[in-house]
Amino acid sequence: xxxxxxxxxxxxxxxxxxxxxxxxxxxxQVGKVFLPNIDRxxxxxxxxxxxxxxxxxxxxxxxxxCSVNAEYEIELDYMYKLLKEKKFxxxxxxxxxLYWDKSFKKEQINSFKRQxxxxxxxxxxxxxxxxxxxxLTIEIIESAQDGNLKGIFHCFNGTIEQCQKIVDKNFxxxxxxxxxxxxxxLDEMIKYLPLDALLLETDAPYLSPVPYRGKRNESAYIPxxxxxxxxxxxxxxxxxxxxxxANALKLFNVDA
Length: 256
Ligand code: NI
Hints:
Number of helices: 9
Distance between the termini: 9 Å
CATH architecture: Alpha-Beta Barrel
Shape: globular
Structural class: alpha/beta
Strand order of the largest sheet: 4-5-6-7-8
Bound molecules: nickel (II) ion
Oligomer: single chain
C-alpha cells in the first residue's frame, strides 16, 4: 500500500467525481491520503471528505502562506480553536511563498512561526510549503528545532546542500510529480536523499507527473512518482512503497 502524504482532494476540481477518484486511488494501491488545508474557506469541505472516507482520508489544519493577508490572525485563531476540538493529523500547509506576492512577507513569517508552535504543542508534523524562500524557511526551522519538532518539506525542489540541512534537522522530504519532469533536474538530490527521510505526495490537483503533466493530478498517480524515484535510486518500486509508507505511518502516528 502507498500513502499520498499531500493532496487537496477536497477542492472543487474533484466535486463531480470524488468517489471515482477514491476508487482509482485504491486500485492503484494508494490506501491513505493526507489532506493539507489551505485557508478557512476550505476547512468544511476538507472535514466533509475526511468524514466520508474515515480510513482513507486524514485531515490536517493550517493556513497556506499564499492565503496570508492582513486578517491572517483571525483565521489562525479560528484554526487553533478547531485544533483543540477535533482530531487532526498535521499542521499545514504553512511556510513562506515569495513567488506570487511579497507584500505580506512579515505576516507569512509570523503565521509560519505560530503554526510551528502548534505542531510542537499537539505533537503533530508541520507541513511546509516554500517557494522562492527556501533558505529563509530553513533558517526558521533550524532555530525552532528543539528536538520536539517534526514535519515535511512538501514539494521539495532545492539543492543537495539544502536537502542536507533539512534532513539534519530531522525533517522529511515530500517528493511529488516534479521529480518526473526532465527540466527539474532533481536526480542528484534524489540519489543523495536518505530513504528514511523520503515520503511520496501528489499535491493533487496540481503538479501531475509525466505523462499527465498539465492535466488534473490525483492520488492514483503516486506509483508513477515511486517508479521514477526507484529508477534513480536503483531499487524496486515495491521497496519505495514499503519504505515511504512506513515513514508516513510513523510520522503521522497512524496504524496501517
Ligand atoms: Ni499543497
